[in-house]
């Protein structure tokens, strides 16, 4: 498991280095090609000169939305309603995006619950703190670094990527935990106590995560679509990448949810098999003594004209007959593999 984690972390670091290194070669190619800035901008969807400007990041409370200077009433209404939103979404408006990010706690408590709104246009990214759940994980570790990125959309992408960067590894840990439970169910089902509750808790966590990943996929797809050409082509590609990553996380969480259901069914099946084996054992034991009980009842009538009662070898004969019957029954049960 540790080897898998290290390999995945190295892959993430390598991809991150490639994304950061992609900006400089692109600038050199544009200058070397001698093309005009307008021509380069048309190919990218926006002017490349804006890509070189540092992103403007603001972190404000939800009650300070009016101070952003937004004139579009629909955008303001969306931002004001974020307090009652517990979902992840993005809505496209003329020249901007507005939405919310809501991520539940990750498995293993590696990420606390995150809930914040955002306003994104070509010049700035405003992060809106909602009910105090814009945690220090996001604000303290990233806000200062985000301003170093060349565009506000790129800063939002880096923030979202940071929030889910370890989720796949944590899902792999959950898969290992469920595999251990499966092995215990198969090895010693009678010793498992409280595992149903543990599996059901994991299933509920995975259900919430799966929903969050699906919503994050929709958010990234909405921004990547960018009908107004707000984002440079490079940033649209990044949000497409984020959408694909959210899809992979959603597929993994859904698979683990189904795995939880299969474990519960396996545990119930093993318990049923154990009960069936016990019932079969009791049935075999009862069947062995049925003929003996019949003989006992027969000779317990004590009629005066029963010759075996006065026969010298009557008692020994009944014992021998009973043993023969028991041996025959045991042989039959073994042949039928009931014992």
Pick out its properties.
alpha+beta; Methane Monooxygenase Hydroxylase, Chain G, domain 1; 5 strands
Give the arrangement of secondary structure elements.
Elements: H1 2-21, H2 23-33, H3 37-44, H4 48-51, E1 56-61, H5 73-80, E2 89-93, E3 96-103, E4 114-121, E5 124-129, H6 136-146, H7 152-163, H8 167-187, H9 195-225, H10 233-299, H11 314-335
Parallel strand pairs: 1-5
Antiparallel strand pairs: 2-3, 3-4, 4-5
Region (Disordered): 1-50
Protein name: CorA-like protein
Keywords: Cell membrane, Ion transport, Magnesium, Membrane, Transmembrane, Transmembrane helix, Transport
Write a brief structural summary.
With 339 residues, the protein is α+β, with helices and mostly antiparallel strands. It has helices at 2-21, 23-33, 37-44, 48-51, 73-80, 136-146, 152-163, 167-187, 195-225, 233-299, 314-335; strands spanning 56-61, 89-93, 96-103, 114-121, 124-129. It has 2 domains: 2-271, no CATH class; 273-335, Magnesium transport protein CorA, transmembrane region (Methane Monooxygenase Hydroxylase, Chain G, domain 1, Up-down Bundle), CATH 1.20.58.340.
What does this 3D model show about the protein?
By secondary structure, the chain is α+β, with helices and mostly antiparallel strands. The protein folds into two domains: 2-271, no CATH class; 273-335, Up-down Bundle (Methane Monooxygenase Hydroxylase, Chain G, domain 1), CATH 1.20.58.340. 63% of the residues lie in helices and 10% in strands. The chain has eleven helices and five strands. The chain has helices at residues 2-21, 23-33, 37-44, 48-51, 73-80, 136-146, 152-163, 167-187, 195-225, 233-299, 314-335, and strands at 56-61, 89-93, 96-103, 114-121, 124-129. A five-stranded mixed beta sheet has the order 1-5-4-3-2, with helices on both faces. Helix 7 packs parallel to helix 10 (233-299), helix 9 packs antiparallel against helix 10 (233-299) and helix 10 packs antiparallel against helix 11 (314-335). The longest helix is centred in the C-terminal third of the chain and has 67 residues, at 233-299. 27% of the residues are buried. Residues 1-5, 18-53 and 135-141 have low confidence and may be disordered. Belongs to the CorA metal ion transporter (MIT) (TC 1.A.35) family. One of its GO terms (molecular function) is magnesium ion binding. Mediates influx of magnesium ions. Alternates between open and closed states. Activated by low cytoplasmic Mg(2+) levels. Inactive when cytoplasmic Mg(2+) levels are high.
